[in-house]
Structures are given as structure tokens and as C-alpha cells.
Amino acid sequence: MNISIVTVGKLKEKYLINGINEYIKRMGPYAKVDMVEVADEKAPEQLSEAEMLQVKDKEGERILAKIPQDAYVIALAIEGEMWSSEKLAKELDKLATYGRSKVAFIIGGSLGLSTAVMQRADAKLSFSKMTFPHQLMRLVLVEQVYRAFRINRNEPYHK
Asked: Which residues are annotated as a binding site for S-adenosyl-L-methionine?
């Protein structure tokens, strides 16, 4: 399986980079994982509704340019469906079984995802009703994808 995780912004925190790299390394036997960063749109703290849409649209164009045409797209969005770890495992297994070996997870910037990205998504996934920093979501996502592969192989998960 080929997994792309397309994210907005550059990750600078060393502890997050180290954690993400550890899980990507652990996923080596199961999948090829690419972390793809697109530039975030520079914007002032206070934005009008129209300016927010403009920022999301520009970031959305960059995201869409990085999604492989034949990828199954899962957008992380607070309004998405909440899945258990087992449900994520089942969905990834189902995709692999039916020949959808390219999966792209999308993590937006601080303002969220554009309408165009949400329309391109085959599924919308929410990890919680809470809002998380998009940098931290990268680590949480790769851990859950790793856990899903372990579940699918009936392998123990060591914490």
C-alpha cells in the first residue's frame, strides 16, 4: 500500500518529527508512507470570512496538486465521521483488497480545508469533536495508521 499524508505547513518541532519518523519506519513492512508538505498561506491574525476562504482556497490548490489522481482520499475534518481504530483498520484493509492501494490522508492548515478539497475527498474522518493543532495531528494519524496495520495482521501492539 502507498500512503501519502498531505499536510499544510512545515513541521519544525523536533519531538513531533522524531515521533512521526519512528512510526513511518515501523510501517516499512506494511506500506510506503510519504509525508508531503505544502506551503501555508501567510495571513494576518484577524481575517474576514472572505479572506479566510481565500487562504483555504490557495492552500487547497496546493493540496490538490499533490494528491495522486488514482488515490482514495481521506480528509481529516472535525465535521467528519468518527471511526474507531478497528474501523480505520477495516477501511484500509477493504481498500487494499479491492485494489485501491494508493491512499491520501489530508490534514489542512489552521483554518481547515477548502471546499474543493472536501469535494475531492472520498471519506471525511474526525478524530474528535475537539480541535487539535494540525502539526500534532500528523503524529496522531501516523500512529493510528500503524496501529491499523498491526490490527489487520493480528499482531500485538506494543505501546
From this structure: 76, 108, 127-132
